[in-house]
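Box 3.1 A note on notation
Throughout this textbook, protein chains are presented in two layers. The first layer is the amino acid sequence; the second is a token string describing backbone geometry. Keep the layers aligned when reading.
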Amino acid sequence: MTPQGILKESKLTEKWVTREISNFDYLMMLNTVAGRTYNDLNQYPIFPWILKDYTYESFDDPTGLMKKFHYARNYSNAASVMHYLIRMEPFTTYHIQLQSGKFDIADRQFHSFQSAWLNIMDSPNQVKELIPEFFYL
């Protein structure tokens, strides 16, 4: 069965709309249906940015053929997960291994939501979605 079929058969969206399940549970179940898992850092569950101020700009196709969207390429990978979870093992060790045996430059390390948001808005190379841990740790 396709992910679309699983989603439809599960009535997951209807349960979310009628508040039978929480936003967190809905997003986690969507991640599961999409094949995302805690067991693969390159397919780690993702959560959307939850913003107080929705005045940011997003991609706007000059031809008008595509609707606006935030990321035009892969938005989750092992380095992104390690970036956010660097202060927790085993992610600290993974990060050090990725950086050839030492920590990355301090200015490039995660230290606040605000700076992470500004970085993804200012740089087309920053494509990090949030991860579930931001909502339960």
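Residues 1-35 form one domain. Helices lie at 3-10, 12-17, 23-33, 78-84, 91-98, 113-122.
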